[in-house]
Amino acid sequence: MSSASSPPVLKAEAIHKSYGPLAVLRGVDLSVGRGECLCIVGPSGSGKSTLLRCLNLLEPVQDGRVTFEGRDILQSRRAEAPGIRQRIGMVFQNFELFRHLSARDNIALAPIRVKGEDPANARARAEVLLRKVHLPDKGDSYPDELSGGQQQRVAIARALAMDPVLMLYDEPTSALDPETVGEVLQVMQELAEEGMTSVVVTHEMGFARRAATRVIFMDGGVVVHAAPPAAFFDPAAPKPERLARFLGRLEH
Amino acid sequence: MPLDSPELILSYLSSARFFTAAAMTLLISLCSLAGGMASGLVLALLQESRFGPLRVLAVAYLWLFRGTPVLFQLIFVFNVLPSFGVVLSGFACAVLALSLNEGAYMAEIMRSGIRAVGPGQRQAARALGMTDWAVMRWVVIPQALRMIVPPIGNQFIGMLKLSALVSVIAVEELLLVANQTASSNFRYLEALSAAGIYYLGLTTLFMLLQAFVERRLARRGRAAPKRGWTQWMLGATAEGARVR
């Protein structure tokens, strides 16, 4: 649960980002409290995914501030970025498991090569994480031997292996077959319920309703509306017209 | 007159002189391929570098080594380096020149392998906190190497044949030995046949080795697309036919 007393895990202010003349983010403000599960929804091209990439410095930002662990990480030097990203897990739409490594080694690679963990320990911990994402017997499997849903769960375990304080999910179920969406969302929900701070860009309104502590609606590169899920999806609650239209379209 | 003494071919094939020469051919090829892979990887990384002058350096290298014949490079290394006080054995000159030349071609292969590893893989590695170098070392290069096994096999077979050029700088490899043997008794057919059989034996050996490696990678599921027999026979010979 988000608590007003403790400082936010991550706070973004007035984020501006453009590709050439095309403004993708036009002053986005966002704050994620400890233990919060923040869902970002909105039409395609509204800048949701770009925002996520800006938060862990995968994309350069033209203007704004991102406060993480007590400082503005947009002001950090280039060489500091890897250290910051270690603390922020990210899950991608297309999983991006390392194709040359088994599931176990996908999870253990960064702990071994980035943190210098003992390989045997890292692999043992990978097994623990595989159990956590309900894939206890898939350690030896290579990515192309796994279904999309299984790959995405390994990708979540891979991100967790670095002990992040924050998880970013970039449309984690958009590339999945419908029958495997549920297993991935379930793992994400379990993590959120255990208190993992999460920011989830998603089109799964059911998930947002069930797991989110707050839902944010983005359109045209700005945050249009933010509310707890109950209010966000309440047809009777007052909301901006753009959001009402977006939700209306989803029902058809 | 032709082939009135086929047993002479057999005696050449089993002679210590031809065997040593074939071993020399193999050694030069292996060393030059290793040198070529190392210089090719460095060049490929320079070309992919963020730093402009390094890219220019790589392009200058490619321009120089792809723009002059390898025979010229061999003779240049052998005859010009000594006047700068660098005196190398014929073998060292051969390996140096062939490695430098091979690097220019290997760079393209390495680069295509590196490029074939998608941007999403790099991004995922960076998101885990890897530095640019770690991304290269642990994610991109291992995947790229698997993809370039077939073209590297072809390069090696090409190299076996290319190594015949070093006969001009008096390295005792197959062609030189065959030529010398024949010029003492004018039995060119027999001596060259013996050398030809050694070349074919070596290239066949490496084609089989290449097929074995490709199959092993394929079984682990992470391989370059499978090629049929004819495809890689053609690939192997087309490579050798390339004029440098």
TrEMBL record, chain B:
Keyword line: Amino-acid transport, Cell membrane, Membrane, Transmembrane, Transmembrane helix, Transport
Principal location class: membrane
Database matches in InterPro entries: AA_ABC_transptr_permease_3TM, ArtM/GltK/GlnP/TcyL/YhdX-like, MetI-like, MetI-like_sf
Boundaries of every ABC transmembrane type-1 domain copy: 22-210
Cellular location(s): Cell inner membrane; Cell membrane
Protein origin, superkingdom: Bacteria
Transmembrane segments: 20-46, 58-78, 84-105, 156-176, 196-213
NCBIfam families: HEQRo_perm_3TM
Family: Belongs to the binding-protein-dependent transport system permease family. HisMQ subfamily.
Protein name: Amino acid ABC transporter permease
